[in-house]
Specification:
By secondary structure, this protein is α/β, with parallel strands linked by helices. It is built from 14 helices and twelve strands. Helix 7 links the parallel strand 4 and strand 5. It binds pyridoxal-5'-phosphate (PLP). This is O-succinylhomoserine sulfhydrylase.
Length: about 400
């Protein structure tokens, strides 16, 4: 190394905000400052022998973009550094991250224990498709650690939780569930979509695997679909083997967009959380609000756990309006600025009626059991002025 050559960036020596901007950069011979987008499906070799060595895995380097591409690798390395994971594998969506993890690590006859509030499509994936191929799932009350212990079977291989949950923002003690999972000889996977590594680092709390829908806060601007799985190298190699064989790979274009999203992740999460806290406090004081669900409020049942394992309460606030579906829909329909959509994790604030949209496909019975009432409204708070959000939420009172 000449005296002018700089040592590569070592994430272990820097704070998360710096890691989010600088980790994983791999420069081409042109010395570009911005991360390059490698829109190529395959890679060329100098000789047949080199091709053979790369295909067999005996020589490092890219072969085909179904399994590796330099832009995707940059995103993977940066997210792994942010989560404090040995490795990360990017996927085409959050759902394909979950699918790939289960396909790689489970087999017919295995059993999953999952928290009741997990994402609707995740529940469908477990109950419909994995069940069909002989992998059973037990759903347990999310915040009851004894319920996880009681659900353990000799064939339990995976615990799967999501915290805070959607839409009720229930907070699960990750360290406590990790202890139960490890005592049962199982792995703990945490869907870290709602917090992102800017607010919560499940691996430090004992989780083995972290799942992301990069579609949400990692991109943060509602532009592309993407997903990722983080964890130990041995297990991520298995996930990569599945990707290489089955193909739910992240495109280099989407990887590039999300890589740029990571650079502003920390400041977005801080600002959106601050907006959410202000809005949650205000909602709690409104006479037309029956109840507010936000981990950053002292009234939240798991406020203490949330403040221990998250940096903030996050950017999702749910509340029950006094009345039922009619009042909830009236409030939503009177808004002019907030986006009526089921997505979240965007700089634009979104407003959703979970009982008739995201949770509309599950039975009334299951909805009642999970506490998702017809009067419930979910806000995924963005970066607009909080005063404008409040005005929009009050318009229905004038009509
Ligand atoms: C959106 C979401 C998913 C699925 O992600 P996609 O990128 O839409 O496939 C998984 N888990 C949670 C918590 C989500 O919010």
């Amino acid at each position: 190394m000449s005296s002018h050559e700089r040592a590569p960036f070592d994430p272990a020596q820097y704070d998360p905000e710096t890691v989010a901007v600088r980790a994983g950069i791999e420069r081409s011979q042109f010395g570009e400052h911005g991360e390059a987008m490698f829109l190529t499906s395959s890679f060329v070799f100098d000789t047949a022998a080199e091709a053979a060595a790369r295909f067999s895995g005996n020589a490092p380097g890219n072969v085909y973009a179904r399994f590796t591409n330099p832009t995707v690798t940059m995103f993977q390395d940066r997210l792994a550094a942010l989560e404090g994971a040995e490795a990360c594998i990017a996927t085409s969506s959050g759902m394909s991250a979950i699918l790939s993890t289960l396909m790689a690590l489970l087999k017919s006859g295995d059993h999953i224990i999952a928290s009741r509030g997990i994402f609707g499509s995740t529940q469908q994936l477990f109950a419909t498709y994995f069940e069909k191929f002989g992998v059973s799932t037990t759903l347990v009350e999310a915040t009851n650690i004894e319920a996880y212990r009681a659900a353990v079977q000799p064939n339990t291989k995976l615990f799967f939780i999501e915290t805070p949950s959607n839409p009720l923002t229930e907070v699960i003690d990750i360290a406590a569930v990790a202890e139960v999972a490890h005592a049962a000889g199982a792995l703990l996977a945490v869907d870290n979509c709602f917090c992102s590594p800017a607010l919560q680092k499940p691996i430090e709390l004992g989780a083995d695997i972290v799942i992301h829908s990069a579609t949400k806060y990692l991109d943060g601007q509602g532009r592309v679909l993407g997903g990722a799985v983080c964890g130990r190298k041995a297990e991520m190699d298995e996930v990569l083997r599945f990707l290489r064989t089955a193909g739910p790979t992240l495109s280099p274009f989407n990887a590039w967009v999300i890589l740029k999203g990571l650079e502003t992740l920390s400041i977005r999460m801080q600002a959106q959380s601050a907006n959410a806290l202000e809005l949650a406090r205000w909602l709690e004081a409104q006479p037309w609000v029956a109840r507010v669900f936000y981990p950053g409020l002292p009234s939240h049942p798991q406020h203490e756990i949330a403040m221990r394992q998250q940096k903030t309460g996050g950017a999702v606030v749910a509340f029950e309006v006094k009345g039922g579906r009619e009042e909830a829909w009236k409030l939503i329909d009177a808004t002019r600025m907030l986006s009526i959509t089921a997505n979240l994790g965007d700089t634009k604030t979104t407003i959703t009626h979970p009982a008739t949209t995201t949770h509309g496909r599950i039975s009334q019975e299951a909805r009642d059991a999970s506490g998702i009432r017809d009067s419930l409204i979910r806000l995924a708070v963005g970066l607009e002025s909080v005063e404008d959000m409040k005005r929009d939420l009050c318009r229905w009172l004038e009509s």
